[in-house]
């Protein structure tokens, strides 16, 4: 079973209107799912953190309310998202010390009400 909190592959969130965007990270939340936009750490939570209310279902792809969440495909599958993801990857590669470590991201998510599922011990080393 793929736990959405543990996903390291980029995830695409499709809203009820069919608009798709990439999430930097997702966390389970008592009310549903918390996700952070790409470049969230350069913004404020009211702009870059989003809560989708409902029951998260599936093992990937996932569903919650009228939203669908899946792993980002390649350039041929998701050409409309490829440039955005490439910019994100380029930024992370060029600025490795400007993005918070996983533990800090989880702490921020917890302050926003999320309940991150801890990684198994062997995956945290």
Number of β-strand runs: 6
Mind describing the biggest β-sheet?
6 strands, antiparallel
Strand order of the largest sheet: 4-3-2-1-6-5
* Rg, alpha carbons: 14 Å
Query: What fraction, in percent, of the residue positions are helical?
Result: 10-25%
Output the structural class.
alpha+beta
Compute the separation of the termini in Å. 21 Å
Q: Output mean pLDDT.
A: 90
Strand content: 25-35%
Number of domains: 1
Number of helices: 3
User: What is the N-to-C succession of helices and strands?
Assistant: EEEHEEEHH
Query: What is the 3D form?
Result: globular
- Segments where pLDDT lies below 50 for 5+ residues? none
Annotate the secondary structure layout.
Elements: E1 11-14, E2 20-29, E3 32-37, H1 45-48, E4 49-53, E5 62-64, E6 67-71, H2 79-94, H3 102-111
Antiparallel strand pairs: 1-2, 1-6, 2-3, 3-4, 5-6
Structure overview:
- The model has no long low-confidence stretch (mean pLDDT 90).
- By secondary structure, this protein is α+β, with helices and mostly antiparallel strands.
- The radius of gyration is 14 Å and the shape is globular.
- It has three helices and six strands; from the N terminus they run E-E-E-H-E-E-E-H-H.
- It has one domain (4-112).
Kindly list the characteristics that best describe this protein:
125 residues; alpha+beta; six-stranded antiparallel sheet; 3 helices; single chain
Give a short overview.
The chain has three helices and six strands. The protein is an alpha+beta fold and 125 residues long. The longest helix is centred in the C-terminal third of the chain and has 16 residues, at 79-94.
């Amino acid at each position: 079973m793929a736990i959405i909190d543990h996903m390291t592959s980029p995830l695409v969130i499709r809203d009820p209107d069919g608009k798709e965007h990439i999430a930097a990270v997702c966390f389970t939340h008592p009310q549903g799912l918390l996700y952070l936009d790409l470049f969230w750490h350069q913004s404020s939570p009211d702009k870059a953190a989003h809560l989708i209310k409902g029951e998260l279902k599936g093992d990937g792809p996932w569903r919650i309310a009228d939203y669908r969440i899946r792993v980002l495909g390649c350039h041929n599958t998701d050409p409309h998202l490829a440039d955005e993801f490439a910019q994100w990857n380029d930024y992370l590669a060029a600025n490795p010390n400007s993005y918070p470590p996983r533990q800090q991201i989880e702490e921020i998510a917890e302050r926003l009400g999320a309940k991150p599922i801890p990684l198994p011990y062997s995956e945290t080393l």
